[in-house]
Amino acid sequence: MTDDQGGAPETGGGRTRRAVVVGAGIAGLAAALRLRRGGWDVLVVERAPGRRSSGYMVNLLGTGYDAAERLGLLPALAEADLGWFTSILVRADGSRKFTVPAEIAQAAIGDRARTVFRGNLESALFEAVGEQVAFRFDTTVAGVAQDADGVDVELSDGTRERADLLVGADGLHSGVRAIVFGPEEDVRVDMRHMVGAFPLDRVPEDVPEGAGTTYIGPGRTAAVVNLGPGRSSVFFAYRCADARDELARGPVEALTSAFGDLGGGVPGALRALADAPEAAYFDSVAQIAMDRWSRGRVVLLGDAAWCVTLFAGYGAALALTGVDRLGDALEEAGADVPAALADWEEGLRPEVRKRQALARKGMAQFAPPGRVHVWARDLVMRTVLLPGVRGLVVRSIQRANRSPVDR
Fold it and tell me: Percent helix, strand and coil across the chain, each rounded to 5?
């Protein structure tokens, strides 16, 4: 039998399978949508008192674009798509070094890509889920116990939920992971960098519309993108000795200290941050390295499982890819949830390993060790602009965006 949504088979006795999804971010909302379309009854648990979103840009390309298409998200994202923009490399005072036309990235990526703000993607997912799943905000997981037939989830509001599957999609600092798999310090790989990103309500100063200016210096990067009112944003990354000290200072003090000497669009961006610090995503850079993403009927998704970091530029895409493939695996395995999770994990690991490796390699691009490295990076980028070299670079980017399992 199937439920009234025409989804996956019910379990024995005509009972619809039930899932508890922890986290109402991209990975959690996507999991809720995919599972519901597979016929599952879904409860989403979120620690925040309501919907929230950091406003930095995310890229959907490769398998991430494919997953968004299968989830039916592309029509809702079309209007929010930020498209391609010119990248202007600048000096510390904001003066121009050279310009990388938008056409280079467009040629490399092609039409099967979307760049949107995180909030737009989360809104598209939330609207797609609609009233098909239940939400319980201001709630966390307090305890987990499981047996061969299901998993019992104790919630902070004093209730208990019995489910066939528990999905931990609650981010880098996952509470589900801590309860079921152990403390964060056992699986967290600290990369000794900080990132800050936030949207700009006002059009950035000293940045041409339809372009982004990027300063790359020893140990830090500052990028300000001007795509018009409500479509502009800032990205900061820098190397640090102790992430705990930076987090204790907070985004306004820490980012002003790290970037307050820069010119161009940065001073205006920092003033905007001081007016609305709650809009910023500000955190240390870390990856999660685990031998297993599932245990019994509990599975981790997205940053809770692998966290490729913003340096990879593929976090949202990989979250959607993982969710889409998980849905397929659960449908193919039927009632054998642990077997489905094992098969899913085996198939996804090559992609995750690739993205994590690219992020580690890419740290030097965002925070070069010294001035010589900055000079060498500039030289490479100037070379890319040469007509004879551009085609080689385009093909290299295309290869990087292909999944290992698709080659």
Answer: 45, 25, 30
Does 3.30.9.30 match the CATH number of domain 82-115+191-284+364-406?
A: yes
As a whole number of angstroms, the distance between CA 339 and CA 329 comes to 9
Element (H, E) at 321: helix 315-333
Q: What is the DSSP letter of 361?
A: H
How far lies 54's CA from each of 24, 139, 235, in Å?
12, 20, 12
Compute how many other C-beta atoms are within 10 angstroms of the C-beta atom of residue 332.
13
Q: Do 330 and 388 form a contact (C-beta atoms < 8 A)?
A: no
pTM of the model: 0.88
Q: Could you identify the residue written with the tokens 């940065």?
A: 266
Determine phi and psi for 332, rounding to 5 degrees.
-70, -35
pLDDT tens digits, 287-340: 999 999 999 999 999 999 999 888 877 899 999 999 999 999 999 988 899 999
Tell me which fold the domain 12-53+64-74+117-187+287-362 belongs to: FAD/NAD(P)-binding domain (3.50.50)
Please give the structure tokens belonging to residue 268. 């205006």
Amino acid identity, position 148:
A
pLDDT tens per residue, range 234-270: 999 999 999 999 999 999 999 999 999 999 999 999 9
Count H helices, E strands: the chain? 12, 18
